[in-house]
Amino acid sequence: MSNLAPPTKPPRGVKHPKETSGLLMSVIRTLSASESNEQRDREKAKLEKEYKRSDQRLDELVSLHYQDHTQVMQLFGKLSARVTTSREKIHAVKENLQACKLLLRCRRDELKKLWLEGIEHKHVLQLLEEIDQLREVPAQLTAFLAKKHYLHATQLLVSALSLGDGSLEGVEALREVRTELQAKKQQLHSRLLAELTRHLYIVSTQDVVALRRQGSGRDGNPLNSPFQRAGELRGSARVSKTRLTLLDVSVPFPNASSPRVGMNPGPNHTTAGDESDNVEEDVDAADPEAKSQHFMAILVESMALLNSVPDTVESIKIQMQTELLAIIKRTTRQLLDLSQQPTHSLGAHSTSLLLELMQTVFDQFRQVATAHASVLRSFARAADKHHIDVRLYEMPDVWSKVQAVLQLLLTDYLDIQNMAGDPQQAPTSFSESTSDISVYFARRRPPRQKRVPLFKFDYSSHALSINSYLKEQRTSSAKEYSQAGQSRQREKLLVCTPDPRNITQIFIPLMKFIEEIEHAIGCTPGNPCTLNAFLSDYIKEVFLGRHHMMVAASIESATKSLDAWRTTTSPELMSDLGLSRPLLQSTVMVERCIQDLRELMQALPVYAEHFLSIICNILRNYRETCQAAYRGIVQPDSEDKRICSAAWLKDEDISRFIKSLPNWTDLQAQKVTYRRRRPLRREETTEEESPEDVRQRNMKEAEILASNLGEGGINAHEILSDVGQLKGLAQLQESMEWFSTSILLFASELPSAPASSPRVHVASVGIPAMPETSVRALMQLAQEFEELANTCLLVLHLEVRVQCFHYLLPRANNYNRLVGGVDSQEPDPKVLELSRVLISIDEAMNSSLQPRKLKYIFEGLGHLIAKILISSAQYIDRIDERGIQKMCRNIFALQQTLTNITMAREIALDHARHYFELFYLAPEEILSGVMEKGPQFSELEYMNAFQLVHRSQAEPDYGAVNTHLSRLSDILGEVGITV
Predict the structure, then answer these.
(1) Does one domain contain both 98 and 130?
(2) 3-class DSSP assignment, residue 826
(3) Is residue 620 a part of any domain in this protein?
(4) Each residue of 800-825: b (16+ CB within 10 Å) or e?
(5) Do residues 858 and 902 touch, judged by C-beta distance below 8 A?
């Protein structure tokens, strides 16, 4: 084997011969199976050839691998020599170990004594080092506390206490140090609790107050005050961090299962757990309190190391309500101080300050709740990590204290204690409409005795009555204050005067905050929180009942007092209301009640439907009162007497006809246009029109009235002869129109919703959607007031015309005096009386109605008077020159009166004067004039003129009359024009 060359790899490109073993076996099988010698010889020759080839291949392989084989053999020889040497060395070491073992066995006792002495010296050195460390602990602890590195201080103190109670327990010289450390432990616990309380209630809320202070005095609008703007600026940035955290009651507390904190903290950081705990204290930080939540987690971890978590939790629960009340007190004092500054926009002790107080307190309570949620997670993590058995409070407990504090705050500002003891506050049934208010609208009824309420508030059967709740609240508060060692009496520091109406200023933000509380504690829709129940009980049991009585008293004063039906004459009030004419005081007072209820609908949107039902009831009863007042004017006590103008309007056909006339439609068009432009201000818009337009507009009305009232005459009891009654109608009309416009505007601004839509449960800004039926009822009431106003105006319009018929229509040959007698330069007494009546009516209407309405009343009156005077020719027996002059003087007097009233020349009366001037002419001259100038009057009027001319002759010729009438008919037929 040693002569064989080491095998080497064949060079690249050399092909290995195919395996020949298969060929050999094949040859052997062939030889054994062959039968002839020749075949065997051939196979043998082939076999020999293959053997030679194999031998040659073997030589080649040996020559190729010879060098490698030689090298392997040399290495093997070297390794064999080294192994032999090592065996010899191991054998020598084994012999030496046996010798050492023998020597150590001989010196065992001496070595053991030396080992024990070394251990004792080492323990003594360790004790001395621990004593030195323990003596330095107070100074180090003071240094840590001065820098507020509480976790380092706690770890140091716990480590020192464990040393003092451990190996150094028997050292008498350290007794004072141990006593001092125990005192330090109590002081540290108190300080940690104080720091945690400060961060929970002061540090967490300081951003709210700071931002509100920075924005103070920049805006005069209380609803956009700096406090509110600061809250809005914070809102977007705080939603994801604060509100979502405090509203999420399912946030899991982290499960910390890390080992205890080491007793020897590093030079820069102290880790109070593993990475999941993430509670580290950086001693190099400039401000350890920069991150409040992290700082509170360090405080909780320190308390866990001191094993004071149960006491801390109990202290937090006891002090929670006191600290929340302190927040309110601090905020109140800050607001009062801020309101005294000259640059501040809010006045001291105003309701705007109360709204600011509520907004600020709500923001601070949200921050406090967020801080408590963070502390609870830290407590849960520390309890799980250090295996502390403690019963933690929960977020619903925090919100419960918040609700209790807000209830005490509302008790002060809403004056609930005084209201609850008021014997006049009787609860009202709120499940049905307030129909009892109708008794306060009745007119001309004897005074009713004041009823004693059947039930007082103190004995309300409601499960959560205000009285019982206040007693329970005061009792529980007293217990908590006694436990905390504080007085039961709280210092009353208020930003405004206690008043039940303060609820209107704070209801919407308060309800929004209540919604947040209910969402945070998981209240169901049918199970509201205690604060919601408290507020609902107060509004239902106290506020609404009190407001009902106030509304009833106001309405009673508006309709029953001596001044109720007088007009408002105060210039300031008329300017505030945008009035150009005075209104009835009762209307203004009722409208103020409506506006007050409207403001309550906006301030208390949850009860908007209830207030709307009260408004509808007030309007229904006031409508009946006003209609009774109208009937008292136009319907005398005696049934056999009637006012002609009012009786006419009862006829639907006549009323429809008058309302279809152009002057009425034009008046309504002006009112509609005016409403669209500015609904609540009375603008006078008069447009100049041509006399022809006026004549065409009023001619039809004059003809219809003359045809209906021209027969039979109008008696004295059928007219309103008292101008005071006419003025009362005018004032009622103006008031009703203004009142209906106000109601229509209010109804048009109300959002309506189908009756099947869900009702409002949470307050929202503005009036919520009202049931469509209620809105329609309000619109219907407004239209009824408008119809009453229209009726009054139509009565005035007709009454002036009816009185013209009463004074001018001839009865019982009144015009016989137009012939003979003493010539008088004065007009007829009836004409003078009519002029006096028209002037009186104008004076009364001018101070009560707008010019456009006066125009409607007096416009066209000249056409009617002319029509009456011209038609009176058929009732005159005879007329002479003096009689014609008398009629002309009558016409001139009436024309002058109407001109002074309408400030326009009454052309229609010129037409009437021209008619009576025809009587100066002979019949032939009249016919000639018709042929030359055309007809100026109607055929009937010419016929009446011819007949009067012939009756006035000494010996009337009736045949000539017929001839003249026949010629008149022929002339008018030829002309083809009929006036």
Answers:
(1) no
(2) coil
(3) yes
(4) bbbbbbbbbbbeeeebeebbeeeeee
(5) yes
For 730-765, letters b (16+ CB in 10 Å) and e give bbbbbbbbbbbbbbbebbeebebeeeeeeebeebee
Distance of alpha carbon 894 from alpha carbon 906, whole angstroms: 9
- Cα 624 to Cα 440: distance, rounded to the nearest angstrom: 12
Q: Are residues 676 and 634 in the same domain?
A: yes
Q: How far apart are CA 871 and CA 809, in angstroms?
A: 9
Beta-bridged to residue 395, according to DSSP, are: none
Looking at the DSSP bridge assignments, the partners of residue 269 are 282
- 463: Cβ contacts below 8 Å, ≥ 6 apart: none
- The secondary structure of residue 268, as a DSSP letter, is S
User: Within this chain, do residues 606 and 749 fall inside the same structural domain, yes or no?
Assistant: yes
Which one is predicted more confidently, 272 or 527?
Answer: 527
AA letter at 465:
S
| Same domain, residue pair 150 and 269 | no
Rg (C-alpha) for the chain, rounded Å, is 57
pLDDT tens profile 457-488 = 444 444 344 455 445 554 554 445 444 433 33
Let me know if residue 837 belongs to a domain.
Answer: no
Q: Count up the domains in the chain and report the number.
A: 4
Q: Is the dihedral of CA 594, 600, 603, 607 positive or negative?
A: negative
Distance set, CA 557 to CA 162, 441, 586, 594, 615 (Å): 83, 9, 8, 15, 17
Three-state DSSP at 676 gives helix
Residue 350 CA to residue 494 CA, distance in Å, equals 10
Neighbours of 570 (CB within 10 A): 12
Q: What is the DSSP string of 770-799?
A: EEHHHHHHHHHHHHHHHHHHHHHHHHHHHH
Co-location of 98 and 151 in the same domain: no
**Distance between CA atoms of residues 420 and 465, nearest Å:** 10
Are 223 and 341 in the same domain? yes
Q: Is the pLDDT of residue 244 over 70?
A: no
Write out the two tokens for 11: 């060079």
* Residues in the chain, total: 979
> Quick one: angle between helices 206-214 and 309-339, nearest 10?
10
Is the same domain home to 778 and 796? yes
d(CA 95, CA 117): 32
Task: Report which of 752, 712, 909 is spatially closest to residue 827, judged by C-alpha positions.
Answer: 909
Residue 669 and residue 651: Cα distance in Å, rounded?
24
Burial class of residue 110, CB neighbours in 10 A (0-12, 13-18, 19+)? exposed
Of 187, 203, 229, the one marking the end of a domain is: 187
Q: Report if residue 398 sits inside a domain.
A: no
Compute the C-alpha angle 187/191/196, nearest 5°. Answer: 150
Encode 839-867: b = buried (16+ Cβ within 10 Å), e = exposed: eebbebbeebbbebbbbbbbbbbbbbbbb
Q: Summarize pLDDT for 762-783 with one digit per residue, the tens.
A: 445 567 888 889 899 999 999 9
Q: Which two tokens stand for residue 555?
A: 């309405």
Supply the pLDDT for residue 365.
94
Give the 3-state secondary structure of residue 270.
Answer: strand
Burial class of 553 by CB neighbour count within 10 A (0 to 12, 13 to 18, 19+): exposed
| 331 in a structural domain | yes
What's the rounded Cα separation, in Å, for the pair 624 and 442?
A: 8
Boundary (domain end) residue, out of 170, 187, 204: 187
Task: Examine the domain organization and report whether 169 and 204 are in the same domain.
Answer: no
The model carries a pTM of 0.68
Smallest CA-to-CA distance from 742 within 851, 570, 551, 594 is with 594
**Location of structure tokens 């005490």:** 408
Inter-residue contact 779 to 771 (CB < 8 Å):
no
How many Å apart are CA 927 and CA 964, to the nearest integer? 8
Task: Provide the domain limits for residue 374.
Answer: 188-388
